Amino acid sequence: MTTFKWGFVGAGMIAKKALYPAISRSNVGEIYAVASRDADRAMTISPTGKIYTDYDSLFADPAVDGVYISLPNAFHLPVAIKAMKAGKHVLCEKPLGMNAAEVQEAIAVSEAAGVLFVEASWNRWHPRTQRIQEVVQSGQLGAIKRIRSCFTYDGLDGGNIRLDPTIGGGILYDLGPYSTVAPLWLLDFPAVSDLAVQSVRHPGGVDETTRVNYTLGNTVCETVTSCNIPETSWLIVEGEKGTARMLGHNVFNSRHAESKLEITVGGKVTIEEFGPVDPYQIMADTFARRAQGGSDWVMPLSESLRFAQLFDAAFAQIKR
């Protein structure tokens, strides 16, 4: 396998603090080029190749194998489509689009161009995340009766882009791709019913604290996200025979830290421990191998579409 040459589109916090160090440690890929309207910011990511101040020039560079997009939410779709039409594989920050129709449009472009297109929901590559999904779907907990998930933080300043409604701000697009959608992938995407949404808006107009409850078959799902509640997270699955629990401050964002999964069946409690890993690096490396013909697992676009459909339904209630 030859080294996978990455082109970064955007040089903001996530690119600098997450993907840059992850790929810098990789034996699979390298950051070859960065495109940013701020050349000085692009230089902080230290590409091995080139700095571009416009995205099209990066897309036209034949040395770039794949593109990582970390722009504000509203720009994900148009930039991803441009990159894919230029023949580049695309790993794009969540959410892929502002609604399900946009995600479907991007999927069609990826299929027509014959390139890999993946949503960068990095927590899905964490071994603990994959293990709780395996436990739930194995049947050892019995029929699942309830799933509860939560992911919150506070302390955003008023100028944070997450609070800007004109570029896709709001907590549902920020943390929803973690906690709000967790029951869907845990149960392998049954149909959603009985959707009920409660939301508190930030003065700027975006959703600030949002509870999204719904039913999947016979499973009641209770989820909450917020950027105005002290940091907390949990993922609790309750079945007829037992429970699986991920608790603590790093349920959805465990990185470079030990983590645990608590499984209780028939009154017996088992604690499974997971060593420190970097899910960003696992994600980037598996994406690169898959783009070069490997069989590594990447999150399917069908899942991204189902997430977008759930968000559409939730926003329809929020805007009533």
Automatic annotation (TrEMBL):
Q: Tell me which residues make up the Gfo/Idh/MocA-like oxidoreductase N-terminal domain.
A: 4-117
Any idea where the GFO/IDH/MocA-like oxidoreductase domain is? 130-244
Q: This protein's superkingdom? A: Bacteria
InterPro entries from the xrefs?
A: Gfo/Idh/MocA-like_OxRdtase_N, Gfo/Idh/MocA_domain, GFO_IDH_MocA-like_dom, NAD(P)-bd_dom_sf
Question: Could you tell me the keywords of this UniProt record?
Answer: Oxidoreductase
- Any idea which GO molecular function terms this record carries? nucleotide binding; oxidoreductase activity
Question: What protein family is recorded?
Answer: Belongs to the Gfo/Idh/MocA family.
Record's protein name: Dehydrogenase
Gene source species: Candidatus Planktophila dulcis
